[in-house]
User: What shape does this take?
Amino acid sequence: MSLSDSERERYDRQLRVWGEEAQLKLKKARALIVGVGGLGSPVAAYLAAVGVGKLVLVDDGVLELSNLNRQVLYTTDDLGKPKVYVAAERLRKLNPNVEIEAIKARLDEELAYRLVKDVDVVVDALDNWETRLILNKACVENRKPLVHAGIEGWYGQLMTVIPGKTPCLNCIMPAPPPPRETPLPVVPTTPGVLGVLEANEVIKLIIEGRSSFEGRMLVYDGLRGEFSTIELKRNPNCPVCSKLG
Ligand SMILES: [Zn+2]
Assistant: This one.
């Protein structure tokens, strides 16, 4: 596998940072992005722009007017259309070198296992813990890295699960939290910040095999303009990950 002249030109600025060998790793990589809303829009846009070889997108939503303040892959013309198909079209136009697979579905256990098995890295761009915990279990059991982010209002959090090495999402949230205010209040820039950071961790996982947030959670406070980190420990009795080394 090599880069074409047009790929070398497209990726010129980033090749000056990480070189062609790293770019080929990105080109060979496959990433699963679950959710193409506020978080998933920037994750998918940046991973397509940067040249990750294949992106698999999963979402069952249809574009609503109240999505457009933060879900930056979409336009007013897309109202009423399935988001995952509109996103795939946009991303193919952004970078035709990237293969995009779009799946309109709500992630259940069976689909999660099937999709996770065939990718190198998984991104949690979801808005609910029920589905998150299903995705986490599939990642742990298939030993695939999972980049998690969650947001509400001005606040966000991010961490990477390396199965067998770091806490998994079940270690920190063993059961879905009680129902909250729905829909969640969201400052539009919060998923933008966290989504870009998720994409950044995916890039490092592919190129360097590591994330900066293994076993530590990044906490973002957009109102105060502060980032902090919290060290997290594995739960030795975690029903999902405690059996792994
Ligand atoms: Zn665990």
Remarks:
- The chain has one domain: 5-231.
- The two ends are 34 Å apart (CA to CA).
- Residues 5-231 form a domain with the Rossmann fold fold (CATH 3.40.50.720).
- The chain has a mean pLDDT of 97.
